[in-house]
Amino acid sequence: MTDEGRTRKLTRRELFTSLRPQGLKQQADRWRSGLADSLDKYVPDNDSEAGKSFAGKTASHTTRYSDAPEMLPGRTLEAISLGQPDEAVAALRPYVKHKPKDREARLLLGRILYKDGAIVQSRVEFERILRESHEDSLCRWPASCAALCLACALARCGKLEKASGMLLKAMDEDRPQATATLERLAEALGTLARQDPAEDASLDTAVDGLVATLENYIEAAYPTPMEMAADLAAGETPTNPGSTRATAT
Predict the structure, then answer these.
(1) Pick the residue with more confidence: 219 or 65?
(2) Band (36; pLDDT cuts 50, 70, 90)
(3) DSSP 223-246
(4) Which InterPro entries does the UniProt entry name for this protein (predicted)?
């Protein structure tokens, strides 16, 4: 393999696809196959009188059914499992619009946008979650996860001082053992915020390393977007798994 082949960076879509669990596409294909068999058995042939009647009755409902709010979480999960972030966002946006107080769904939307590189759009979703969580502590799910995600987004946008401050506000009370590490990350971001990028060419690399550490912690400590989408599709509310998932090191 050439040096170029070894060092080529993955595109955002390739990275998103590489993170999805194995076997989901095959499982989705089996579901589609089973659905097709059921339709062949129970839906009349289009050439028959019954089939023509059935088609006439269902044609006007097809679009409305596919866009029904209760169908959107399932479409979101399928899109994530197939590595299609754009389709996942397209399905989840109208769901969040239909249920604007669903903070978990909005958090999932923000995390998908962030992973797909839409950092500014993800900030909007994370910030709204925090505004709607004003009566709750920022140290509790889902606000705690949204605050850490917002810190990542702020840092990626070059707002290092704000990112540092957000980290200090978002210490998760369910994971007190991670507090020291998060405080060190906040302190390091604050230090980098006071440096002049023109005088330190390695500043971007240092920021990338700190944000990557925080991103890894979020992925380990909280439900992943795939897990959140699965809960949403099953009609369950994603919950904070507590300190049993992971701790920062």
Answers:
(1) 219
(2) very low
(3) --HHHHHHHHHTT------GGGS-
(4) TPR-like_helical_dom_sf
Q: Count other Cβ atoms within 10 Å, centred on residue 53.
A: 11
Phi/psi-derived region of residue 92, left when phi > 0, alpha when psi is between -120 and 50, beta in every other case: alpha
User: pLDDT of 205-244, one tens digit each?
Assistant: 999 999 999 999 999 989 999 999 999 998 876 666 554 3
For the chain, domain boundaries: 64-236
φ and ψ of 79, to 5 deg:
-65, -40
Copy the structure tokens of residue 175: 């994971």
Whole-number Å distance between alpha carbons of 50 and 48: 5
Residue spans of alpha helices (H) in the chain = 3-7, 12-18, 24-42, 49-59, 62-66, 72-81, 85-98, 103-115, 119-132, 143-156, 160-169, 179-193, 203-221, 225-233
CA distances 15 to 11, 70, 83, 116, 210, Å, are 6, 29, 9, 9, 19
CATH number, domain 64-236: 1.25.40.10
